[in-house]
Write a structure and sequence with these properties.
The chain is α/β, with parallel strands linked by helices. Helix content is about 30%, strand content about 15%. The protein contains seven helices and nine strands, in the order βαββαβββαβαβαβαα. The strands form two sheets. The chain has a six-stranded parallel β-sheet. A three-stranded parallel β-sheet has the order 1-2-4.
Length: about 240
């Protein structure tokens, strides 16, 4: 592996991004993907996790999704991009019986035992924790819960606590540090030693753009937390 995070503490891993062209509601073109990736690199990102949305009720199968994802990734070939440092995953939307969906384990982040899950915005799903636990146990995967800070106003306290009681990693969007309530929630996660990782959740260059500049501004104060975030990737590599 050509990346040595110990040599430069302020290199980042973007655990959540929508940088693949024409795959979902993220990048709409190869050119936009190139601009997004180059901007993230300028902000200090050295490893990228591409996590296009996966909605089981919309997809024919996991394998057909993987074929689309591979096709989108291949569009970036020959564009002078760090493709060897882009890991393919998915943002798996949690819905009823998702743990029974065939080949769901194939949506883990490539080269790791990490798998990113998106809680629903429509409200807390019954048996949410059981679905996550079933996938984690059945396939020996480590769940990563996407941007939990966004749900503090949507879910009640007991629902949030149930999620926090999962044996999971919690992914934080960098923009959480620009919102008082979300920042307070994230700071409490860190204070209470929950494992956290960071992501841009970038979708484009206009409204949901690369934002690791936000984390870079905090890097001196959060040096250890950023190191721990990077190390989680290594901890769950296969």
């Amino acid at each position: 592996d050509s990346i040595n995070f110990k040599e430069n503490r302020y290199m980042f891993i973007d655990y959540h991004s929508h940088i693949l062209p024409e795959m979902d509601d993220g990048s709409r073109s190869i050119e936009e993907s190139i601009e997004m990736i180059n901007t993230l690199q300028e902000q200090g990102v050295k490893r990228f996790v591409a996590t296009p949305h996966f909605y089981a009720h919309r997809e024919k199968s996991v394998n057909s999704f993987l074929e689309k994802r591979e096709s989108a990734f291949n569009k970036l070939s020959g564009k002078n991009l760090p493709l060897e440092n882009i890991h393919l995953g998915a943002e798996v939307y949690i819905e009823s019986k998702i743990s029974e969906y065939q080949d769901i384990e194939k949506l883990a982040i490539s080269g790791t035992r990490l798998i990113l899950f998106e809680p629903p915005y429509s409200g807390y799903v019954k048996n949410f924790s059981d679905e996550i636990k079933n996938i984690a146990y059945s396939f020996k995967l480590k769940p990563v819960i996407a941007h939990l800070h966004r749900y503090t106003g949507l879910y009640n306290k007991s629902d949030i606590e149930e999620i926090l009681n999962l044996d999971a990693v919690f992914q934080i969007n960098n923009e959480a540090f620009t919102n008082l309530a979300e920042r307070s929630f994230v700071e409490n996660l860190i204070k209470n030693n929950y494992p956290v990782v960071f992501g841009s959740d970038c979708h484009n260059m206009l409204l949901r753009f690369p934002n690791f500049n936000i984390l870079a501004e905090k890097s001196k104060k959060m040096q250890n937390i950023i190191d721990e975030s990077n190390n989680i990737f290594e901890k769950y590599r296969i």
